[in-house]
C-alpha cells in the first residue's frame, strides 16, 4: 500500500522523494505570514522605517538567507539553487500587525514552497527578536502558501 | 535619545546587544505553535503515529537542530551553548491541528526565547513539508513565547 | 608527470577536480557500514524499535542531512544538488551489530559515492551517540562503497 | 521506567540530555580509526608525504573542522566550545592502512568523545575522497573511543 | 625546537592551540578595512543612504553574521560565544572609499581579532557584491587589526 | 527609475537579482589579494614551505571551502554548484608579502567573481590567523577581480 505522505515510505520511514527524473521547469512559489504586535512595538518599527532604520532591512536579509538554507533546516527538502528570493513587508496599522510576503523562484526539478515558507518564518522571527524588549507578547500567525507555479501539478493558488 | 528597540542603536543601525558583563544564570524559555491541517493529513499523521512512523520524530529532530542554529538564522542573536532542547507534539483532533511546544535551557548570559520560537517554527515547517502532498492548504499559527525564567528581568509567563 | 591522486596537482597541492565540461548524467551510489555494540545496547535499540522509539529515525535523519552537507565536510568535494538520499538499518542480532546502507542519486556532473559514505558514517555516529551511555565500547566498521552507476567510468560494484 | 538510552525519554522520543546543572570540568577524549587501502594508494600518499604533498594536511584540516561542527551533524549533541582538537596520521605500511587518532579537549559540562569520533570519521572520509580514483575499494574500519577524562563518570580507557 | 608559528606544531602540522587552561577574561578587538570604488558607485551608495537604502544595512548584517561563523571559516580558530559585534561604515568621499570598522567582544579564553577581521572582510565583500554592476574594478584594502584588549598579552594598539 | 545598484530595487530594498531565465554558460573568474607581513613571519612561512609545513595547505583548503560557502556569507549571492576552485600562493620576498590568486569555474546562470574574491579573502585571513603570534601588524591588501569569462557581458580583464 502506498503511503499518502510522500515523505514516508511504505515502512513508515522518513524518505526523501526521488526527483532525479523530473523535468527541469521554471517554478515559483509565494507565501505569507503575519506578526501581531503591540502599538508600542509597531510605533517603534514605523519610526525606524520613516528614518533610516534597519529593522525591516535586517528581517528581509534574514529571510533571504534562510530561504537559501532551507534544505539544511527541513530534513527531507532537496538542496536547490534558488534563482530569486524576495521578501516584502506591509505595515498594517489598522490590524496592529505586519504582513510578510515572500517569493522564491527556481529553474529546477522540485517546487519551492518550503523555501518561501521558511523565508516568511525567519523574517517573522527576526522581527520578533528585534522587538521583544518592547513587546514580549507578540504572535506569529497565518504562515501559509499563497501560489505555486510550474511543475507537473500545474499552477495553484489559495484563493 | 535611546531607542526602544534594543537591537537598533541611536543611529537606527542594526545592533547586537552587548551581553559581555551580564551574569551567567540558568535560563529557560518555552514556546508554542500550531499547524492546522485537513482531516486527511491529520489522519495520515495519526496512522503513522500508531504505527512506527517517522513523521513526528523527523519534525522533532528538525526543531532541535534548528534551536542550535538560531544565531545563524536570526542576525542579532548571540551564539549560545544550549544545555537542553525539547519538543513536544499533541495531536488535537477536535480542533484539527497539532499543538507544538518547545523548551530550551541555558546556563548563560542571555535569554533563550528566540531558540524556543525557532524550534517551534522549524518543527512546524517540517510537518508542513511532510504533509504538503496531502494538504497544500495547511496554516502555521499562534507561534509565541509561553514562559521565560532566569536573568535580570525575572520570571515571566503569558498567562 | 601527472599525479595518480586526482585531488593533488603536479605541485603536490590540494586540488578540486575540474568537472565543468563533464556531461550531466544520472548517477547513483550505494555504501554500507556497521556498528558493533553490546547485547545491552542492541536490546535497548530493539525494544525502541518494537515500540515507537526514535533511535533509528534520528540516525536516519542525521544521515540524510549529512549527505546534503558533504561538500562542506570534505574539502575537495563539489557542491551537489542530490535528488534522492535513503538510509536503511538492519539489526543483525546474530552478529551483534547493525548494518547501515545508504543510497544517493544525482542528475549531475560527478559521482555521489562520497555522499553515500558520509551518510553511512554520520548515521553510525548518531547511533553511537544515542547508545554510548549503555555501551562506550562500540565500534564503527566496514564503511565502504558498494555500487556506483552513471558517469564516464560506467557501472561498478564491489562484488 | 527510565530508559537505558539516555537520549530517548520514557515515551521513546529523541531527547537532548539536560546538562544545565552539570559542573564545568576539563574534559578530554581520544578516538581512533583506520583506512585500509591498496598498495598503489598507499604509495601515492607516501610519495606525497615525502614531497610536500597536501594529502594528510587536507584530511587533518577536514577532521579539525568537523569536530567543531559535531553538534550540527549529530542531532542530540550539545554545542560545545572546544578548546583543542588534534589529529594524527600514522602510515602503517605493514598492514596496508593508515592509523588515524584524534584528541579533543573542553572545559565544559559534557564529554567530547563524539567530537573525537567525528574528527576521525571525517578525516578518514577525506582520505577516501582523495584516493578514490586510485583505489575505489578502500574501507574505513575500527572507529572507536580510546580514552575519556573528566566529568562525573571519571577517567576511562578501552585497554 | 618550538615553532614560532603557534598554529604549527614541531612536526610542521596544522595545530589548534590548546586554550583549555587559559583564564576567562573580557576581550575586545577592533579592526578596519577599506573599499575603493568609482565615483558612480560611491554616488549610488550615498544616494541610497540618503534615502532608505539597504546597501549599508545589508553589509552590516553580513559582517555581523560572518563574525559569528569565524571558526567555521578559519580552520584553526576556536568556536567562541561572542557577546557583541558591531560594524561601522564611514563614506570617505574625498578619498573615494568607504571606511569599515568592526568591534568584537567576548568573555572567554582567547582573543577575538580574527572575528573582527572576518567581520570587516565580509562586510567589504558584500559591498563589492552590491556595487559590482556599477564598478567591477573595486579594490578591498588595508584590512588589519587596530586594537586588542584583555588576555595574558595585555592591551595592544597599532598606533 | 531603475536603480544603478542591481541588488537594490526601486524602493531601495535589498534585492536578489532574478537569474531564472539566464542561459547556462561556462563561467570563470580569477581574483587576487596580498598579505603584507614582517620578515620574521615571512621567514616562518618560508621555512615551513621548505619543510613539510601545513601553513599554505591550510590556507588553501580554507579558501576552497569558503568559495563553496559564498552564498551563505554574502546575502544576495545565489547558491552555485561550483565545478572548480583553485588557490595559488606566491611568496614575494622582495616586497615582503604573499600574493594570493584564486580561480572559480561554473557551468551556470551567474558569474563567479564573488566566489573568487571570497576564496582570496578567507585564504588571506587564514594566513593572518596562523602568523598573528609572530606579527600582529599584518595587512591584507589589494583584493580585486582580475578576469571574468562567460555570460552575457562577455569576457573582461582588469589590465
Automatic annotation (TrEMBL), chains A, B, C, D, E, F:
Pfam families: MoaC
Gene: moaC
Organism, scientific name: Neiella holothuriorum
Residues of the active site: 129
Function summary: Catalyzes the conversion of (8S)-3',8-cyclo-7,8-dihydroguanosine 5'-triphosphate to cyclic pyranopterin monophosphate (cPMP).
Binding site for substrate: 76-78, 114-115
Keyword Hydrolase carried by entry: no
Protein name per UniProt: Cyclic pyranopterin monophosphate synthase
Matches recorded under CDD domains: MoaC_PE
Amino acid at each position: 500500500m502506498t503511503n499518502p505522505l510522500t515523505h514516508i515510505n511504505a515502512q513508515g520511514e522518513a524518505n526523501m522523494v526521488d526527483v532525479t527524473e523530473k523535468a527541469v521547469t521554471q517554478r515559483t512559489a509565494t507565501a505569507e505570514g503575519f506578526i501581531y504586535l503591540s502599538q508600542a512595538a509597531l510605533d517603534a518599527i514605523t519610526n525606524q522605517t520613516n528614518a533610516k532604520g534597519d529593522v525591516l532591512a535586517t528581517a528581509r536579509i534574514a529571510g533571504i538567507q534562510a530561504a537559501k538554507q532551507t534544505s539544511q533546516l527541513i530534513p527531507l527538502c532537496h538542496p536547490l539553487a534558488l534563482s530569486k528570493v524576495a521578501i516584502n513587508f506591509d505595515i498594517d496599522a489598522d490590524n496592529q500587525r505586519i504582513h510578510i510576503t515572500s517569493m522564491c523562484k527556481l529553474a529546477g526539478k522540485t517546487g519551492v514552497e518550503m523555501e518561501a515558507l521558511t523565508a516568511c518564518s525567519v523574517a517573522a522571527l527576526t522581527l520578533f527578536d528585534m522587538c521583544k524588549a518592547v513587546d514580549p507578547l507578540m504572535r506569529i500567525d497565518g504562515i501559509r502558501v499563497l501560489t505555486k507555479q510550474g511543475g507537473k501539478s500545474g499552477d495553484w493558488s489559495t484563493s
